[in-house]
Amino acid sequence: MLETWLTRELGITVPLVGAPMGGRAGGALAGEVTRAGGLGLSGAARYNTAEWLAEQASTAREIGGGPLGFGLMTWSLSADDSLLGAVLEHRPQVVSLSFGDPAPYVGRVHDAGALAISQINTIEDLRVVEAAGVDAVVAQGHEAGGHTGRIGTLPLLQQVLEATSLPVLAAGGIASGRGLAAVLAAGAHGAFVGTALLASPETVGPAYARAKLLAAGSADTVYTDVFDKARHQPWPSRWGGRALTNSFTDRWHGAGADEETIAEAYTGEDPDIGVVYAGEAAGLVRAEKPAGDVIRDIAAQAEALLARFR
């Protein structure tokens, strides 16, 4: 058994967290990750409704039978924090507040009896979330799929581990037991996994996304803002998104076109144009596997690898 602060704090058996991928991680995926011994987080994106959150919470609890968690984009709460209120109504055990200063919201999370964690991309981010009073941090590296920072996972993880007394998790590029073993050996208490789960049937989103991921290699991603512009998503400019390359990124990434021109050329229904956010671990995802099997396989391989040094 891989016992860490994360497993002890949440009463889980596997130090893995299913990343709260907006538009891909709902209650079914979160529930299967939790049922396999980890913690599944549903992605509470800014466009989700309270009704949708209620459905995901119910599904996750019915399947997982364990702790419940959600992830929110902190920057979007400044204009409307009702999504956080809707999340807290379901009494989650963990709330991830990432991409922005969580200080206005950590107290509410704690008052609801939940742990507050934040993904961070720099040491400066670490200092901000420490001051906000979060319970743990996730060092999210540039390899990660979706929105992320610009420092690689291992350099960032090493810096963060040396700079804080908070429990630290790792994210970005971790899609096998070898990756989990590496970050645990470095001193992390667990890992977020996202791309490793994207070919699982429990994900939501366009039907073509799984096939696109399985056909991709680790070099077939791009760090870009063109999909935010295409879909009028007001992400702060410091965070780009890592996605699979396609004909749309070939045409518009780095082209210098204005947002309206890019948006007019976009349609999410077209598999050669629509966004599939995925990380550099894409080359490790080779088959459609149930999310629970993915989690169990990663944990078993990591435990076997780490057992060699005991």
Describe what you observe in this structure:
- By secondary structure, the protein is of the alpha/beta class.
- The protein folds into 2 domains: 5-204 and 286-307, TIM Barrel, CATH 3.20.20.70; 208-264, no CATH class.
- 40% of the residues lie in helices and 16% in strands.
- It contains 14 helices and 11 strands.
- The protein has helices spanning 5-10, 27-35, 50-64, 74-77, 82-88, 103-111, 123-132, 153-163, 177-186, 208-215, 226-230, 247-252, 259-264, 291-307, and strands at 16-18, 39-44, 69-73, 94-98, 115-120, 136-140, 146-148, 168-171, 191-193, 221-224, 240-244.
- It has an 8-stranded parallel barrel, surrounded by 7 helices. Strands 7-11-10 form a 3-stranded antiparallel β-sheet.
- Helix 7 links the parallel strand 5 (115-120) and strand 6 (136-140).
- Helix 9 (177-186) packs across helix 14.
- The protein is globular.
- The mean pLDDT is 97.
Give the DSSP E fraction (strand runs of 2 or more residues): 15-25%
Number of helical segments with 4 or more residues? 14
Summarize the biggest pleated sheet: 8 strands, parallel, barrel
- The CATH homologous superfamily of the largest domain is termed Aldolase class I
CATH topology tier name of the largest domain: TIM Barrel
Task: Count all strands and give the number.
Answer: 11
Mean pLDDT equals 97
For the termini, the CA-CA separation is 13 Å
Q: Percent helix among the residues?
A: 25-40%
- What does the overall shape look like? globular
CATH architecture of the largest domain: Alpha-Beta Barrel
For the CA atoms, what is the radius of gyration? 18 Å
Class by SSE composition? alpha/beta
Return the domain count.
2
